[in-house]
Write a structure and sequence with these properties.
By secondary structure, the chain is an all-alpha fold. Among the domains are: 90-207; 213-315, Cytochrome c/b562 (Four Helix Bundle (Hemerythrin (Met), subunit A)). The protein is 63% helix and 0% strand. Helix 5 (117-144) packs antiparallel against helix 6 (155-168).
Length: 318
Amino acid sequence: MARLCIAFTVIVVVFLSVGRTASSQNRRPAPPRRSAPPRWSPDVEDVFFDDVRTTLVGERPDDARAGTQRADPTAEGRRTNESAVPGFVWSTRIAAETIEDELKQLKNRAMQDVTTPGPFKGGGFRQCRDCFSVAAIMFAITAEFDGPVRWKESAAGLRDRFARAGFNCKVGTDASYHEARQRRANLEDLIRGDRVDTGPGSTNPDWTDVADRGPLMKRLEQATQDRLSPWLSSRSRFRQQRNHVIHEAQIVAAIAEVITREGYEYWDDDIYLDYARRLGASAAQVDAAAEKGDYERARQAAGEMSKACSQCHEDYRS
């Protein structure tokens, strides 16, 4: 009887041990406890792209092939203007509709500045120079634009015509007046929907052959001081002018990119490039905030934009 009890006890112990082992094997380990991801404020999130792969240009580097050695960023001859590369994504700076609206405004301005020879020679040629130079830049961007945009097929030829007119309108002469009238007529035809035959245009011209830096700086000053500053002076004015704020912010962002291109004064100066990029980034933030109707963020970004301009003007004189 004692032996039977001992045997029964052994069987029970073995059964319970096997049960515990099977249970422990089937039980999943508890997931490790991790900290919650940080929550960034909107002003921090706007600094980064949602998907940087949609913005980067060129072939991605092969780290496995290149090994661990990296190029020295201070090496002589490095490219200081990294954004100025073939295939630049202009749609990250300016919308196709903004280009079209800007050219419509320039058409209206040309109709005021190009009237008769007397007023033109008396000073109107200076306004025409600024007008046609900005138009040339808009057509240059159109020729490179990475999406559907009006007048793209003829943009290169139009760029060359308006670039030449902008340079020739440095003086008020009969020749520059007649050319200004022709460019005004071109703008009128384009806006009306007529075709303007300009030829193919030059291939990959330097940006400094499209427009002088002076007229572009004037357009920046007009956008930042004459328009954006008063439009962002109060919430009510911002609501009234919100669409115009978006337009001017995109113009600033686009021109801030143009003036960093090779050949323009200070294009290879890292300090100047930093100012220009800060200007463009702040303008993009004004644009994004205005799209969402966020007055406070638009006002703060405009303040950063003005700061970049002021600091640049203190260090550099046009």
